[in-house]
Amino acid sequence: MKDILLSFLEILNEDFHFEVYRKPYDGAPKTDSELKVYRLPEKLGANYQQYYVSLTKRESFESFDCKASDNRDLTKRLLIQMLHNRCTQLGLPHTVDEDGFLKTLEISTEAYPKGNRVIVFTPYYLQRKNKYGFLVDVRFRPNDPFAKPDLDTLKLSFSLDKSGNINRSFYADKYNNLVQHLRVLLPQLNSLIWGALELSIKSSFSRMPVSTLRKKQYIFKGGNSESNQYRGIRQFHPYRSIQDDCMYIFIMEDRFRDFANKLFLSLIGKQNPGTFPGMKQVFGIDISRENVRRVRIANTDQHELDNAIQTVKQIRDLETTSKKIAIFIEKNNNVEDESVSETYYYLKYHLTKLGIPLQVLSHEKISVEKTLKWSTSNIGLALFSKLGGIPWVVKPSTTDCLILGIGSAHKTNDQGGIDRFFAYSVCLDSSGIYRKLEVLADDHSEESYLDALQRNLISLIKGPEFAHYTRCALHIPFKIKRSEITAIQTAISDIRDIDFKVIKINTKNKFFGYSEHNTRTPYESSLMEINRNEFLVWFEGLRMGEEILNERVSPPVHIEFLNSEGTSKDPVDTYLQDIINLTGTNWRGFNAKVKPISIYYSTIIAKYCKAFEAYPDFRKEMLSLNIPWFL
Question: What would the pLDDT profile of 345-403 be if each residue is shown by its tens digit?
Fold first, then answer.
């Protein structure tokens, strides 16, 4: 596997040092935003302690000759300050965020009526090469950051190409734009000066070795495997079928009747048999006029919706021998956006209380005949999975690993403070089979939330259904403190000998990389080690021998093992393989979003629960159904 160019510009200087000013930290609150608290050595080679640190001289602070290796965070802070000073000296249009989480600087390179293209500089220490430097990326910053992206802003951010289509040249466009502007900028920025210190920035990206994780193999009925989900299910049938009769309850207004008829014909295989031959042929479950019920609503007012919910309940209570799913057709829904309709959540909440999964379809999005033609297979997949079928699993790297995907949501008050903390766990095994949903924490303070998180995790692992697992991986989208990890790990070790990993999976991160292929796109399953316990993985990408892109490839995913030192009996490769495998068990659609379902599903659930909290009779127990109702 060829190297990947990490978009990281190294500082050429080795073992540099710089002068700062410090005073022992006494615990008093800071009154000056320029002051930061860092751990530094008391004297050369001595113990570390905490200090107030200023980059500029001030009264009662002593001068300290700081080596770059003394405190990496302090060194990165100096780098962003040096870059800020240089940009100011040159008069370059830029903004700096020294207090933010990433501590970034952005230089504007292209101005447009709707915003600016910028190059983002993030100071970083690349442990693999023992080098300080800057991660760089090109972004579009709209004038209104809260406005929904329109066609122009999507083009300017390279999400769409110049014609307004999905940008298959996403990597190449970003690379060419970045290199073009850096070629002009870097000679101006070099050198960065701080007193007697002079630093030079390398003009080329860092070349990083990569390895390859195995391609996903999907398992279907009888243990048959195939590399393509749809081809496999057509050839071998679902991994686990539904034995019970099924009933489909359509909730809709009269104005959607023609669309519903087309959808029905498409689901039975008569509308577009070439692309979808029917639910019976693909998933082994029947849909016909005999097992379809319609619940009419005049509009989506609450009174009408309440009547519809009551009618569905009556159907459930009368027809006790069949599995049921409700299908609601509305004008439009934005399930993936923040602007999901209140109607959607209202029906989802009340039908979930009844134990009936809901599939919501947008008339506006899929009523066009061509769109319906290609959407029917995904609609059928969601219906089958919500009814309790298992379409496919993946071939696991380990067969005895329990995976807990943690999602969290915070309910805020009018003052911006947090009123309530939620944590939810999607329990899976390494083949991607959904086991259960567990509410881990629901508390009013962060302290009690973390206590409950630990307590309920222990209870979960002690359960008889999970007793045979010898490995446990906690997948989280956020970082938790080492002390909290240690507490959980100690408690688990008191139960039984189990290898326990805490893995942070971040699909939105500051890293990017380019291949030397003319598309600049890395190969699928490429794995780059950037620090001892940190990796970049390309869940999507080029396929060997098929170097043609049919869609936009997502950026790499950042994966960090938070407790690897001295705790692991197994190499991390098996856990990384499980993560990439879980990107293939998203039953929301064929070739659905390439995110591990441990993170993706738990994030969806957290959003639902945040919305459900608005209903006064919400009880967390209602969520623990034995089917993936949240798909």
Answer: 899 999 999 999 999 988 877 766 677 888 899 999 999 999 999 999 998 887 788 88
Residue 59 tokens, joined: 């009264």
Q: Which two tokens stand for residue 30?
A: 């800071």
Whether the ω angle into residue 191 lies within 30 degrees of 0, i.e. cis, is: yes
What are the structure tokens assigned to 356, written together? 């009936």
The CA distance from 603 to 483, in Å, is 24
pLDDT digits (tens, 9 = 90+) for 85-104: 999 999 999 998 866 556 89
For residue 330, what are the β-bridge partners?
362
Tally the C-alpha atoms within 13 A of residue 386's C-alpha that lie toward its C-beta: 26
- Decide: helix, strand or coil at residue 152: helix
Higher pLDDT, 625 or 128: 128
Strands 526-531 and 192-194: unpaired
Q: pTM for the whole thing? A: 0.87
Question: In 3D, which of 291, 281, 350 has the Cα closest to residue 324?
Answer: 291
Task: Report the relative pairing of strands 218-219 and 393-394 from DSSP bridges.
Answer: antiparallel
Query: What is the DSSP annotation of 544-607?
Result: TTB---SSPPPPPEEEEESS-TTT-SS-THHHHHHHHHGGG--TTSTT---S-HHHHHHHHHHH
Q: How many Å apart are CA 109 and CA 562, to the nearest integer? A: 37
Which DSSP symbol is given to 70?
T
- Return the SS3 of 266: helix
Distance of CA 63 to the CA centre of its chain: 44
Going by C-alpha positions, the residue among 511, 528, 478 that lies closest to residue 122 is 511
Q: State the average pLDDT for the chain.
A: 86
Average pLDDT of 602-612? 80
Q: Please list, residue by residue across 194-218, b when 16 or more beta carbons sit within 10 angstroms of its beta carbon and e when fewer do.
A: beebebebbeebbebebeebeebbb
Chain CA centroid to CA 609, Å: 18
Instruction: Give the separation between CA 228 and CA 592, rounded to whole angstroms.
Output: 12
- What pLDDT was estimated at residue 266? 92
